[in-house]
Amino acid sequence: MQFDIFTLFPEVFPPYLNSSILKRAQQNGYLGVELHNIREWTRDKHHVTDDTPYGGGGGMIMKPEPVFEAVEDVLGTPPACPIVLLTPQGRLFTQDVAQELARNDRLALLCGRYEGLDERIRTHLVTDEISIGDYVLTGGELPALILIDALTRLIPGVLGDENGAANDSHASGLLEGPHYTRPPEFRGWEIPAVLRSGDHARVAQWRREQALLRTFKRRPEMLEKIELSDEDRAFLETLDYRL
Ligand code: ADE
């Protein structure tokens, strides 16, 4: 999958992109990221990318010309792929949205800065708007990295283990239950005996129940949205879950 990032702060991306799984995904040809500094598409002496708002008020607004020219130069007219604006006004980013966006083989990410951007960028260039949560950051750069991270781990082959992403919290509609590794006892705290039983069916059932239990305790509303088996329902009834 190919990402084209349009930003005024390209320098914040490489440290994260060049670490761990995203680094390996690029080395192995699953992921390509190109950074485009919007400032390079300014034409004035001072490379100005923002201006004061019409009608007054505080804050600075990103000018339309460099943004349009950057995107059109890189992606053509009309642009060859969806143009996603990262903004707190966008639709909320969830695992379902990640799966939907991961069906594209190319995405452009536009990182807003300042108080906002000229509305004509939204109406005539941007094709989708994404928010990573109901809080306001100083810009769309961290949200863009979050989106790339979540989408990259959905690309088949990136995680190595093909089941890796399928069992994640949220992918199944449930939170994952607890995990343990060696040692079997640490400071007197023992791991659940079933995990050492060697009985794969019992382990699988225990994992399912732990996922249901954790979801019931922390995010009960998630249980309304998934299909539950008869066994799941019987287990939840023991927790006094009202079906
Ligand atoms: N830019 C600033 N805040 C943001 C948010 N919550 N999501 C996406 N982009 C943003």
UniProtKB/TrEMBL annotation:
Annotated SUPFAM superfamilies? alpha/beta knot (SSF75217)
Which reactions are catalysed by this chain?
A: guanosine(37) in tRNA + S-adenosyl-L-methionine = N(1)-methylguanosine(37) in tRNA + S-adenosyl-L-homocysteine + H(+)
Question: So where does S-adenosyl-L-methionine get bound?
Answer: 112, 132-137
**What's its top-level EC category?**
transferase
Q: Which residues form the tRNA methyltransferase TRMD/TRM10-type domain?
A: 1-225
Per the UniProt entry, the Enzyme Commission number(s) are 2.1.1.228
The cellular component terms of Gene Ontology attached to this UniProt record, alphabetical and capped at eight, are: cytosol
Gene3D superfamilies, per database record: 3.40.1280.10, tRNA(m1g37)methyltransferase, domain 2
Keywords of the record:
Cytoplasm, Methyltransferase, S-adenosyl-L-methionine, Transferase, tRNA processing
Subcellular location per UniProt equals: Cytoplasm
Q: Name one GO molecular function term.
A: tRNA (guanine(37)-N1)-methyltransferase activity
InterPro entries according to UniProt? Alpha/beta_knot_MTases (IPR029028), tRNA_m1G_MeTrfase_C_sf (IPR023148), tRNA_m1G_MeTrfase_TrmD (IPR002649), tRNA_m1G_MTases_N (IPR029026), tRNA_MeTrfase_TRMD/TRM10 (IPR016009)
Instruction: Please name the GO terms of the biological process aspect recorded for this protein, alphabetically.
Output: tRNA N1-guanine methylation
Q: How does it assemble?
A: Homodimer.
Summarizing the function annotation, the protein's role is:
Specifically methylates guanosine-37 in various tRNAs.
Q: Which family does it belong to?
A: Belongs to the RNA methyltransferase TrmD family.
**UniProt cross-references to NCBIfam families, sorted A to Z:** PRK00026.1 (NF000648), trmD (TIGR00088)
What HAMAP family would the database entry show?
A: TrmD
Q: This chain belongs to which protein, by name?
A: tRNA (guanine-N(1)-)-methyltransferase
Task: Name the lineage.
Answer: Bacteria, Bacillati, Chloroflexota, Anaerolineae, Anaerolineales
